[in-house]
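Troubleshooting: if your tokenizer reports a length mismatch, compare against these two reference records.
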Amino acid sequence: MKKETPIARLRRQALHDGRKVKARGAKVVPIDEAPSDFHKTSLMRLLEVHHGKPIEDLLKGGTVREIGKRLGIHYSLVTKWRQQINKQKEK
């Protein structure tokens, strides 16, 4: 049996809890998203719904490896997302 990834577990829990989500292809995207200054991926939105905080706050406080471990994502994504957010704030 295939082991369930943390992201797959979040998607399943969001659907099970009855949160407002819609399927976009194979991805689950929360519907009630506030506008932001940068493009958010479906994973970013999913993590925001799960943790109840904006992605900018989730990416603060600690090293990229600590944040990646806490959110259940690879640390390279944390770096990439931080760069993307900072790039948009500079504009």
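Reference record two:
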Amino acid sequence: MIQLHIISRVPKQIRDIENLLINENFITGATVIDTLSSYKNEDGEIKTVSTNLLIGRTKASLFNTIEDHLKAMYGDKIPVIYGLPIVNMDFKHLEKLKKVIAE
């Protein structure tokens, strides 16, 4: 199991991805957070931009499938996507997750 993180600067993109992932049973549900991200630009200046973070729980084996869907939808404008391993989870929620998520 992983916690899927998708980061975009385009709110509609995150909402569309949220709908896709839930409708296709790729994630059990989503948390969407409007946040700020900071980075250093080429001139060494620290820049802060508005971003949107979608978080969902899924099976690690679905990561490539999800990534392929996003590449098909957005091409070179694909948002940042990565997965964090879920090391421990209570048994009740783990079993529910296994039943709800696509194979």
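Descriptive notes for reference record two:
- The mean pLDDT is 90.
- The helical segments are 11-23, 63-74, 91-100.
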